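Box 3.1 A note on notation
Throughout this textbook, protein chains are presented in two layers. The first layer is the amino acid sequence; the second is a token string describing backbone geometry. Keep the layers aligned when reading.
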Amino acid sequence: MQILSGSLLQGPIPRLIHQTWKTGDIPSGFQTLQRSWIARNPGFSYRFWTDGDIERFVAEEHPALLPVFRGYADPIARIDLARYLILRRFGGVYADLDFECLQPIDGLLEGRSLVVGLEPEEHGGLAKAVERGLSRILCPSFLASVPGHPFWDHLLDRLVEARHCADVLDATGPFLLTRAHAEYEGTNGAAVTVLPPELLYPVTKEDCWSGRLFDPVFWERVTRRAYAVHYWEGTWFRDGAGRGAALPRQIAAVVTDGRPEEARVPVAKAQDLPLISCLMVTRGQMAGRAGLLEFAIDGFARQTYPNRELVIVCDGPALPQDDPLERAVRAAGCPNVRLVRVEPGDQPGVRTLGELRNIAVDHAAGLYVCQWDDDDLYDPSRLEMQQRVLAAAGAQACLLGRWMIWWPAEDRLAVSCERDWEGSLLCERASMPRYPALRRGEDTPVVEQLRRSARVVRMDMPRLYTYVVHGGNTFTTRHFEEHWQAATARFSGERCRAVLEEMAKRLPVEPYRRVAAPVPATAAARQETVLVLTPVKDAVPHLPRYLELLGRLDHDPSRLSLGFLEGDSRDGTHGWLADRLPDLRQRYSRVTLLRHDYGFHPGGPRWAPEIQRRRRELLARSRNRLLSGALEDEDWVLWLDADLVDYPPELLARLLAAGRDIVVPRCVLPDGRTFDLNSFRLTGEEDPRHLVDGIFQPPRGSGRRYLDSFAGEDIVPLDGVGGTALLVRADLHREGLCFPPYSHRGYIETEGLAMMAKDMGVTAWGLPDLRIVHAEH
């Protein structure tokens, strides 16, 4: 093929990407970067050159240059010459293998005939550049050109003249390219476009080599405008280059030993590597978290710190077939994992989280212990870096001062506020206080005690730990929204995806997202159609608040339908609702208002035992009549009391996220006392002496545990449910599940529904830490 002269230049830069390596065996650290060019530029062809391919190309196409090519003492000089010759002959784009493409590069090439980028301004202050008087430097790591651009002949003339220069930078590299461009006089179609550093070279050599790029906030800021980023691996002159992102050489830390002192702690690799016992506590019934637990175990298996063990304490017996916990341990293929189950006879879920953590500490063999939660993501260097900082600071305990918080279902990622993140604790076992017997928040008193009794270092390296908000966490959505607002950096949408892609070089981000998808209250869950049903009687004082709370629900209102059945009211409840039907029908998918009077007007308190049978019989009849008159094709039915005074906007989302056919929250009075005594778990057989009018009415707490006794648990099975906020899969109602208006094995109405469901093979569940508030009556 004839080489085109500069005067014959025509057409755009070819959509062809060239890259080179010594052989076809590309180091793993470069393979992800290589794939980025192919993935983000789907209209481009790709050609890979080995050293052997290059030598043959030069011999065949430029035999006169073979003495120069073979005369270079440094192999990188031959690669420099080759890239110029390849672009002169074929055109297209050349990119070094330590370059990552961040977005399609068409915008860089359009309307241009030769493109080169400037190195960061800071490089002009480096010693060699200052010695040569070069205030700005053109870099050959990315080049794009039409075939036969006249600049290449101009550059090759300079290159032959400089072939005896001792420094490769002057002979073939950036300094030669910079000088040649300064002397070049090409115009119009033969011009050279020089791009500013932020488009191709947004980070300096020092940024990469010092580990500054490990800071996600810095990485996101400097790459916002970049089409690509060069990592300055320097495999031709730096030992150990090409092995992935550098870890920081110094870390900001605060050391507390009676009084705090700020420092930048050097983190040279320690020689003494004591055994670290990572301690994981998990529940016997994991409620869909088995997949997440596998990632936590895999995160331990991939740690770079060699002298470690993982102690897993589970409070439940193994399942008879294919136990998910034991399967996850086997899948990790890591020999230093020990599984400890609490002794036989203990009821799963009875022990508090604090008690289980103490059991884990007691089984640890290491000189140090490290908290390792069962649903989060850990950078492979977490143990190594925390142990280095702890040793350098001469401390007994180490904590992260910030960590990452990720909402997989919402494309949100944050760098947390600054505080002691208790879940990141690495501590000398001899200095470790005992955990209090709390169901949650058990690690806060431990850290407070350590602050008083030991030397503690708090380090700032948030990428070591990614806390995941997946919908099944101990704390509520509101709690995490507060952390989002208080975060030191927030990324959403496209920028969240960009930072996650950077983190995915070291973490299984996308596999985790796929597994976590069923757990949270995701956008998919919000697409479920829900019929909200409420029997009402003398409810006018409560209905404004009822509609206000309903309007705050974190659910698409077009996917919500409402149904009311009014009966026996004396305060105009039916008329009040009828007046508001036009507005409600504008907001919600469908609204049904029914009316049926039963003539029931008892005197005295509604909880009096002598009226319970009749009161609940009529309430069951009202529920069943409302259900038959309002249910159409909805996926779920949410039974909601009219006299609730508060519940979180995520109430429905969290009930749906539980993934159960029947589920209730914990209902309390404004002063915090339990209101709903119909949601219970039996502790044994019911006492026949407690049968009143054919239904069990035991004294409060006799033979029953209510949801307040399970605080700290994610989800618990129940024998009875209340109707203050009761979510039922609609198909169960269609298949005959109703509210028995008669005694069904000693239970009636909502409790009877739970027992009837049990007869159908369906368990009702409760969420102890999802609280709603009922009006005081």
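The radius of gyration is 34 Å. The longest helix spans residues 609-630.
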